[in-house]
Amino acid sequence: MARAKSTRRTDLLEAAQRAMAEHGAGVRLNQVAEEAGLTSGAILYHYPDLQDLLVDANRAGMERFHDARLKALEGITDPAQRLVVTITSGLPIDEDDEEVRLLCALGGEAARNTVYAVLLTSLYDRQVAMYQAILESGAAQGEFVLSGDALTISRNLVALEDAYGYRIMAGHPTLDHDACAELILNYARLSTNHPLPTEL
Amino acid sequence: MARAKSTRRTDLLEAAQRAMAEHGAGVRLNQVAEEAGLTSGAILYHYPDLQDLLVDANRAGMERFHDARLKALEGITDPAQRLVVTITSGLPIDEDDEEVRLLCALGGEAARNTVYAVLLTSLYDRQVAMYQAILESGAAQGEFVLSGDALTISRNLVALEDAYGYRIMAGHPTLDHDACAELILNYARLSTNHPLPTEL
DNA sequence: AAATTTGTTGAATTTGAATTCAACGCCTTG
DNA sequence: CAAGGCGTTGAATTCAAATTCAACAAATTT
Question: Domain extents for chain A?
């Protein structure tokens, strides 16, 4: 037995995440094995069906992504700051961001794969709920004056960060992380009637 | 010789589009051949490298998508109507829309494939330019009172339609074509100060 | 410390797709 | 209508990945 059992599963999931981020949804068993530093037989021992591993890996990847965003909010109480931080944390840092690369690969696959579609839809809805809570608490405190209902604004905010994630990952010459954040903030300011300073 | 030469190339491109829409970026030569009603050898005769065919097919698919949107605008002069029509024509009708399915597959691949990244980036920019022209002419006519510069608003409009395209294709339970159009229109109204009636 | 279980390898096998190509039918041209 | 090239097929070959499994090593139990 090469490793403590508790980390074995995590190792496999992370290897699968890296492999899928690099090679896309059509990633090969051997590519996952290489990423894990094992042979294909060892992978198969734990996951007789590669698809199951990939689904688990993606689920874990989404959890991590979502959790990281929630964690970035910890300790921040000002609604405006919460909103700015959330917008910033939803965009890839640059086009090498592995976490977002995985999500992009998934998005392309979701149109043809029900399981991935369900996972991504659920992630989208959870992110919408996250924005909604921020907007509503900000409105309740009188900080924000919403231009419409919080659900509509939240859906648009998540949609914007999703789309700009793709633009950044595709290496758009002018739309980098900061430019995209500013574009989304532009909408956020408009719909909250709050100046939302970029710097805290 | 089975067919008139002028349609042969088009046939192949369309077969490749269908095959890639159905099977994703990892589509097999045989799948393209089956879509075309030929054997793999025949495909290889015209395109020794499948990747070249796929790139050409995607380029053609984007042209068609963009041209269809421009055509939908023909004869419409009222800026508000032009804006509404453009928003509507950018979204897939339903989750079976093959044209958008192809674009989604491409988007997922673009994070890992430079050629596709360039193609998609250019499509994005052209669509931004399309919105920009509409917004600026509407502003010049005094119909729209823009909340910011036209480029910013246009970038956000295209980003929204891209993202909602993915949501619709992933079969979101509540976000269908009309719901998404309404969400985008919500932003469009906000940023143009125009009521933008849904029905013409 | 022997026996058992767990995880892993590497080689052999199977599977399936890409590639190559000789042969063939159809269309065009001389 | 004969000759030549074009487009296509289907079979043979090559190539690459998935799958299977006997054997082995490390950890665990008894």
Answer: 2-59, 66-192
A193: left (phi over 0), alpha (psi -120 to 50) or beta: left
B159 with A155: Cβ contact below 8 A: no
CA B36-B40-B42 angle, to 5 degrees, is 75
B46 beta carbon to strand D: under 7 Å: yes
∠ at Cα B36 (B35, B41), nearest 5°? 110
Q: Domain A66-192: which CATH class? A: mainly alpha
Q: How far is the CA of A1 from the C1' of D30 (A)?
A: 19
Token readout for A164 is 């700009």
pLDDT tens readout for residues A116-138:
999 999 999 999 999 999 999 99
Assess whether B3 (CB) lies less than 7 A from strand D: yes
CB-proximal positions of chain C, under 7 Å = 6-11, 17-22, 25-28
The CA–C1' separation of A12 and C3, in angstroms, is: 30
**Which CATH superfamily is A2-59 part of?**
Homeodomain-like (1.10.10.60)
Residue nearest to nucleotide C19 (CA to C1'): B41
Q: How many CB atoms lie within 10 A of CB A44?
A: 15
Contacts of A91 (CB under 8 A, 6+ apart): A100, A161, A164, A165, A168, A177, A180, A181, A184
* Range B126-161 burial, b when 16+ CB lie within 10 A, else e: ebbebbbebbbebbeeebbebbeebebbbbbbbbbb
The closest CB to that of A104, out of B24, B100, B107, belongs to B107
**What digits encode the pLDDT tens for the residues B28-85?**
999 999 999 999 999 999 999 999 999 999 999 999 999 999 999 999 999 999 999 9
3-state secondary structure of A111: coil
pTM (2 d.p.): 0.95
B66-192 has the same fold as B2-59: no
